Amino acid sequence: MKLLAIEAATSSGGAALFSDGVLSGERQWLERGPQTARLLPAVLDLLSECGTSFDELDLLACGTGPGRFTSIRVAVSTAQGIALAHDLKVVPVSTLAALAQPLVERETPVLAALDARRGQVYAAVYEPDELGMPVATIAEKAYDPAALARMIPRRIRLTGDGIDAYSDTFETPDRIRAAENLWYPQAAGVGRIALGRPYQAVDPARLIPRYLRPSAAEVNRET
């Protein structure tokens, strides 16, 4: 089975291709900039490098947020376009779960936190299920950092740019901060979660962005 995974919900982004459960290749960037100009060219580059066409794909996976509203829409619409054109289903994957995926271990839970601006973080705490896939034990929400810091276990792994934005709030001697190259969600993490949960695949029309809170424009309209 060939699975293409994409993730572009934050300032980073990427694409990853799996063949029979093995990572065949990936493209990843950390630079800030518009995801529209990067995502589809990265996908085309990756498929060409791996000698694979869209018609050979069996399944897609897409990080659906939370993150930057425009970036999430780019990721979801790109996945929908590919899926509709090639009659594929898509596994929706939480961007926070993808961020936690490389770090989930039996011994230590993981706090994945993305800077949500406006004095909040998008965050959740994860532990592994029986297949080693991340499952949220503290729900995915937009949190006040200080309130979240009081909720999480004393010993925990920390990852994400939300930790960096509020390091004084979250970091203690008992909390293990991830290496900087793991602070951003990666397409490979999206793909590994999707491979463990292919039964969650949906038709592209049912792929829905996961924002976790209203946009600033929506809040302003209501006030």
Using brief descriptors, characterize the structure shown.
five-stranded mixed β-sheet; Nucleotidyltransferase, domain 5; 223 residues; alpha/beta
Whole-number total of structural domains: 2
Beta-strand content estimate: 25-35%
| Strand line-up in the sheet with most strands | 3-2-1-4-5
* Cα gyration radius (Å): 17 Å
Structure, explained:
This protein is of the alpha/beta class and 223 residues long. The chain folds into 2 domains: 2-95 and 184-222, Nucleotidyltransferase, domain 5, CATH 3.30.420; 99-182, ATPase, nucleotide binding domain (Nucleotidyltransferase, domain 5, 2-Layer Sandwich), CATH 3.30.420. It has 8 helices and 10 strands. A hairpin with a 2-residue loop joins strand 2 and strand 3 (22-29).
Please specify the SSE layout and strand pairing.
Blueprint: E1 2-7, E2 13-19, E3 22-29, H1 39-49, E4 59-63, H2 69-86, E5 90-93, H3 95-100, E6 110-117, E7 120-128, E8 134-143, H4 145-151, E9 157-159, H5 161-165, H6 167-170, E10 176-177, H7 187-196, H8 216-222
Parallel strand pairs: 1-4, 4-5, 6-9, 9-10
Antiparallel strand pairs: 1-2, 2-3, 6-7, 7-8
Short account of what is shown:
The protein is of the alpha/beta class and 223 residues long. The chain contains 8 helices and 10 strands.
